Amino acid sequence: MKSNHYVQKTLITTIGVFLFSVINSAQAQEIPTSYLKEKIAFFKTNARGPYKSIHWFCKDGEVRDARDPCPENKDDAVQHADYRDDTKEIAKKYKLYFGEILAGTNRTAFWDEDNHQSRLKQYQLNKYLESVDDGWIQRQSQFYRGAIQSEDEQAWGVAFYEKFLPRDSRITNHYYLLRQSLRDIPHDGDSNLAQAMRSESKIIADAYPKFMDARIKIHGNPSVEDIEMVKNFQLKHNDKLSPKLKEEFASLQQTMADFYAPLNVSTLRSQVEQVSKTNETRARLIQFLESYKDTDAPENAVPALADILCVIRTSITDATTGNDRLLLLDLSNAIEDVLLKKTQEWNPDDLTGLLEKIRHLSIAAAGTGLIELWEWDKVKNDLEVHLGNKDITIEQLNQFLQTSRGIVEWSAAMTKATYGDIVDTYTTFEPKAYGFIDDRVRSSVALDLGESVSELGALISKYANISNSIMDIDSQSSVRGLNPGYAYGELVVIEESPENVPIDTDKIYIFQKPPSDLKPVAGIMTVSEGNLVSHVQLLARNLGIPNAALSGNNLKALKKYDGKKVFYAVTEKGNVILKTEADMSEEETALFSKKERNQEKIAVPVEDIRLDVTNVLNMRDVDASDSGKLCGPKAANLGQLKKMFPENVVEGLIIPFGIFRKHMDQQMPGEGVTFWQYLNKTFKDADIMRSNNTNENEVEQFQLNRLSKLKSAIEQMPLDPVFVSQLQEGFKKSFGNSIGNVPVFLRSDTNMEDLKEFTGAGLNLTLFNILSEKNITEGIKKVWASPYTERSFKWRQKYLNNPENVFPSILIIPSVDVEYSGVIITKGINRGTDDDLTVAFSRGAGGAVDGQIAETRLITSKTNYLLAPAREESYLRLPSTGGTTKNITTFQTEILNEKNISDIKNIAQEIRTKIPQETGTEYKGAWDVELGFANDKLWLFQIRPFVENKKAKSSDYLKSITPEIDYTKKVWVKLPLETNNN
């Protein structure tokens, strides 16, 4: 085989949203989409594709004509095509590498560590596009003789791996990526048969649509019987097939035959024997091959295959040479291929068999790098509750289901985290790139694991009386409600990136991943849940917007309903209803009367506001009683926390409401009125328009146009010199240094936040780690102006009946360069009890607030459950020089350590007891707390009541569709599945 070989806005709040959007938009501006589309179209038709001519590339760097070989060291010279000038320019300017030829490529540059292995991943993506798009940019140049020399590519691949695999950190940090890359980078003559099978079936279906059903079967539920299915299809349609299609059918059948061929144990044995005899894993592999029989029942073969995959992963660093490690990784891929075929043959007869299949496929997920080893250690006990027992309760089954469903989601998220950035970039100019991630997921154990988990979900739904009713789609048990509510509106299904998609308040959206700055919508469903305490999740929970998670296959199945009017509901127990308008009951239709909608709105209290206070305040001089009077709740509550936890809270300055209001009395340029008069006239004119029966959309657009002008004017308004002088003095007294020498956060803090029925989380601007005096003073005006952005206005307009009375204060605090940050909710959300803690953390600043896939845990008095691991590879740090640095991480270690968890439990207990004692509050609900860790020290950044939508939770309709569940009910583990499914 081988030649040699939230919770809400953390100190970093909207910050995370703001910075990541800045990074993404800057990157998008750098890449000339239309230019690249034109170049790709040209390459497809050009006889030489992205190349210009063939040359000799000598060892000393000299490039010679194809007919003029290198005079010396001929054996070290390589001959292949040279890139066109425009291909080189695209690589140099945009870091996009088309038609990459490996021979002669610098191996360190190809690994591209500084850019998160972007170049290697692009190579894989290029290969995928070539396989699904008739050669893609190589459509003609694949016939350009001599352009690529396969033997040179093979030799380069072997040398590449032997150079980069000896370092342990590369193996442990990038195990999944390295295994995947071996399927694409030439090094041993093997090919990616699973991908080839899907690509060839897609090409046939695109050319001959009647083959589509067969193609869907091959993609979604492959099995060895597919070979006969394809043969029979060709026989039936042979007279209508072109000669080219007949050739493609022959190629597909050969690929399928190769893929489903029995395991050649002798071939694998010869590969194992190439591993150094001193390597202990070699003996384990030989023992495995001696006992393995391809004729064994799949329920015996799959566990053995899964276990040996884990043996290879856990022991691979024991091998010391790059050649041994390359051999072991190739063996791991070969064994996974066998497992994928065997698991398709495993059709359990009873519940125990199904649970065992799920457990062993989960082990295989760890063995193949889809989940990390520490993640498996955290949850493996949850998948053993049936062992040795005669029966199992619905509660235990439900825990098993949630854990196994989590493993499926984490596996898909690993693929997305690894390749998501580069796929998103390519999709802007080549839409077919979007299918790459799905193809990789389908090439893994996650495909059959997901199917098995879905089958278990359907079984539990039957016994627990929990059933979704979602159109007519399959695998409905994959859908789970996140927060309750109901909605009616047009369904919009978005498969690609949502960042540039216009969002309508009255529509229901299904996203792969919601945009970071999501505007209010009627309802949402997402494949990438993110985490339970992100801004989007909190706002949805707060406003009673129904929100659910679904699988990628569910999203595709619902695509046919895109543009249809639908009814959508989620109960507190998590079951989901989605039906067409025609299927709505009278009760459901009655839910959407105008009268009920108006009752949802509340007023921002302004009767106690103190606009006469126009001095910059020290945060130590305010406490919770000043919230909504002098400043917003961020500053007031942080001042309270400073009194209660002085060692865990930074110093701070507050710019109160009165300073903003005083500045609004200036004349607004070109309007003949003050800023304040302009603002109030905007809302008065809007009311007049409504009284004249003007369409609400026109009223809203009128307000948005006016507020946009106001926002721009505020950003340019002059600041009062007295205020600036107070600010400069405040820096010296509170922070011990002059303004411009201390990096700080500017946090918007309005009086519309933390109302009893409205949280306002993440709606307005926070600027962070800004240093210069100019940036700070300009930033103050930007923060003042942020409540008048479209997104902020639409969210509060949806919920407040006096949105004109929103006053911003600003909290200024010095930056803390936290290693990781996040949110605590002092209750279980969706799981657990009111005595538990829901915790979500991400690395760096801005943790867990902008929809990041954060490390999420349920912490109880006795233990902590991993609800989800982190799957965000990019994070931000806050250097003392101001600004941010973008960093890359991997997932082989957990974020929170035992000391962190102990500190979190202790601080949460103190908050529960001290807040009521020291503030006299009558509030008895949960708190949501922002915090971070630097050098294992806990820093508190914010605390606020955890606001949930009581209307959604108490709705009579939602209660009527919420099932009664007897969690103590027992199911016989040997009960036949046929009986369960009747």
Short description:
This protein has 5 domains: 13-191, no CATH class; 346-465 and 950-982, no CATH class; 473-599, Glucose Oxidase, domain 1, CATH 3.50.30; 617-814, Dna Ligase, domain 1, CATH 3.30.1490; 820-948, ATP-grasp fold, B domain (D-amino Acid Aminotransferase, Chain A, domain 1). Helices cover 46% and strands 13% of the residues.
Give your account of this protein's structure:
With 982 residues, the protein is an alpha+beta fold. The chain folds into five domains: 13-191, no CATH class; 346-465 and 950-982, no CATH class; 473-599, Glucose Oxidase, domain 1, CATH 3.50.30.10; 617-814, 2-Layer Sandwich (Dna Ligase, domain 1), CATH 3.30.1490; 820-948, ATP-grasp fold, B domain (D-amino Acid Aminotransferase, Chain A, domain 1). The strands form six sheets. The protein has an eight-stranded mixed beta sheet. A six-stranded antiparallel beta sheet has the order 21-20-19-18-24-25. α15 (298-315) runs antiparallel to α16 and α17 packs antiparallel against α21. The longest helix is centred in the middle third of the chain and has 34 residues, at 394-427.
Which key features would you list for this structure?
982 residues; alpha+beta; Glucose Oxidase, domain 1; eight-stranded mixed beta sheet; six-stranded antiparallel beta sheet; 46% helix; disordered N terminus
